[in-house]
Amino acid sequence: MCTPRPSPLQNRVLPTGEVVADPARGMFTGNRGNLPFTDGRLGTSRWRHQHWIICDLKHPKGRYHGPMPARAWTPLFFLDEAVGLAAGHRPCAYCRPDAYADFKTAWAKAHGAMGHKDMDHQLHRARVTRSRQHIRHSAQADDLPDGCFILHDSTPCLLVGDKSLPYAPTGYGTPLPRPTGKVTVLTPAPTVATLRAGFRPVLAQSA
Prior knowledge:
The protein is an alpha+beta fold.
């Protein structure tokens, strides 16, 4: 008799900012602090601090505390770096120093030089409301840089060149033409400016 597989934990982050249960694997993990699970589901908290980061799946020192740690940070997962950025995260300075340096350089071009605490504070005001709602904004599609996420017919889509790639937890779907006119943008406005200033996120192979 086969043993049923356990249900996936609620730890997959979508470009819309939602955290859902999905068995698909991602390229990166992320940290918002310790978010306890009950029966595999998160409580009401979606962060414990403002330092939302995008980390490598493997700790630089090889440490692993499991998916439901009692005291350490709770790992969340993203399909790729563009999804993590859309959800309001930034590269981790500890385990991804090169990506963080590139992000910080582009951020300085867009917003002026600042440390990670000030960056995170500015990002936090632009990514979520006090009631934990993901903040969206509007922009002209032609003015958006590659790596941004928009909503197209209620589907999150990644902009790359003249294409719009529909998102799914397992990867990107068949490319669509980049829309024209005003669109709803999921990627926080400070990150959009940082992408425009030259930061290039790591994308899933399906992109």
